[in-house]
Amino acid sequence: MKQATRQIWKAWIPAIIWLCLITIESTDYLSSGHTSRFLYPVLHFLLGLDLVRFEVWHHYIRKTGHFVGYFTLSCLLFRAWKASLPVVTARRWVLRWANVSLLMTVLVASLDEWHQTFIPSRTGTVHDAMLDSVAALTAQVVIFLFLKGKAARSDS
Whole-structure pTM over 0.85, yes or no? Predict the structure, then answer.
């Protein structure tokens, strides 16, 4: 296998694994009812949370999971597209990489929420897809700012 092909696969494998993880998380096994079964005893033991307060925490833990999951996916897709769509100049950031990563993440988020509408224990919502999309956009902004700062440091 050529070095260039190996580098592309090396960039795509983490993104593919993350996509598989999102697919597993979208099943009945990680629905709210199932995650509360193991989170409640842990949080009750560690923090002494009662069931009412736990429900609030559980909601925010799950929404944080959405944000972190899709933020990470967007970053991994940026890395994969950067390896797959090289540019002639040695630039660190290209709008095309960010756009494709963002659009692909939004598509995955939308399909994930649509898929969840078919699972009785899950609820696919537009709000979750929007949260996931904001996470993807945030990831692209963070990547841009990070790489811009890195370039400024290396120029000085």
Answer: yes
In whole angstroms, give the CA distance from residue 6 to residue 131. 34
DSSP sequence for 31-50: SHHHHHHHHHHHHHHHH---
Instruction: Retrieve residue 94's tokens.
Output: 């290209």
Residue 45: both structure tokens together: 């033991």
Report the distance separating Cα 18 and Cα 23, nearest Å.
9
By the 10 Å C-beta count (0-12 exposed, 13-18 middle, 19+ buried), 69 is classed as: buried
HSE-CB of 117 using CA atoms within 13 angstroms: 10
- pLDDT digit string, tens, across residues 26-77: 998 888 887 888 888 888 999 998 999 999 999 999 999 999 999 999 999 9
Q: Please give the radius of gyration of the chain, using alpha carbons only, rounded to the nearest integer.
A: 19
Return the half-sphere exposure (C-beta side, CA atoms, 13 A cut-off) of residue 95.
0
Position 74 scores a pLDDT of 98
Distance CA 48, CA 146 (A): 39
The closest alpha carbon to 116, from 102, 106, 101, 129, belongs to: 129
How far is CA 96 from each of CA 2, 29, 73, 100, 152, rounded to the nearest angstrom?
A: 25, 36, 17, 6, 21
Domain residue extents for the chain: 3-155
